[in-house]
Amino acid sequence: MPHIAEVIESSTRHVVAEVHRDVEPPAFGSWVEVTTDDGTVLYGLVSHAETGSIEPGRQAVALGRDRDELRREMPQVLELIRTTIRAQILAYWDGRATTKDGEPLVRQTLPPRPAALHDFVRLCDPEAVARLAAPYDFLRTLATYPDPSVPADDLIVAVMRGLYDAHGRGNEAQTVLVEAGRALARLLNDDHERLHSILRRAQ
């Protein structure tokens, strides 16, 4: 997959990346990956996207022109705008370990080291997203330690929909949703109203 953004802030918990110009930012709740110099692949969930002025403290103003008109008449304005995303790191692959089937052994926990500044960010392909399923340990992180500025339940709903899409929306995908729902039920204990709300919106 081609890279879509570049890391401008990093920790073991999250990355902030600037999206390349003329590239559609990844959707809320989509999975992205960052490959580090040592071959480790970090998997993060997009929890926030923001578009604004590239200059700190300077706010964009309305110009009364649509996007095509801006490109024709005032292309310099678009050069002063950027989109950034924040992705919560929830899993990693060390680049070497594999399962018995030869698939990458993805660990659903924080990585030993953060991504480096200026590492590239790519969208995960459906196969990679499908591997980020059972045992659903990342759901525990989302439910217990969510991005503080994002409604956790909305992010979980987006994740569930992404898993459904990655598994082809058929019987296998339905099975994955059921398994994820059971994992959520254990995490949320007796909060049946919250669980039902998440599952309702994920379908």
- State the total count of DSSP E strands: 6
Q: Tell me the number of helical segments per DSSP (H or I, 4 or more residues long).
A: 7
Describe the sheet with the most strands.
6 strands, antiparallel, barrel
Backbone shape: globular
N-to-C SSE string, H for helix and E for strand? EEEEHHEEHHHHH
Give me the side-by-side strand order of the main sheet: 1-2-5-4-3-6
How many structural domains? 2
How would you portray this structure in words?
The chain is α+β, with helices and mostly antiparallel strands and 203 residues long. Helices cover 33% and strands 24% of the residues. The chain contains seven helices and six strands. Strands 1-2-5-4-3-6 form a six-stranded antiparallel beta barrel. The longest helix has 17 residues, at 171-187.
Brief descriptors of the model:
203 residues; alpha+beta; 2 domains; 6-stranded antiparallel beta barrel; 7 helices; globular
Brief characterization of the structure:
The chain has 203 residues and is of the alpha+beta class. 33% of the residues lie in helices and 24% in strands.
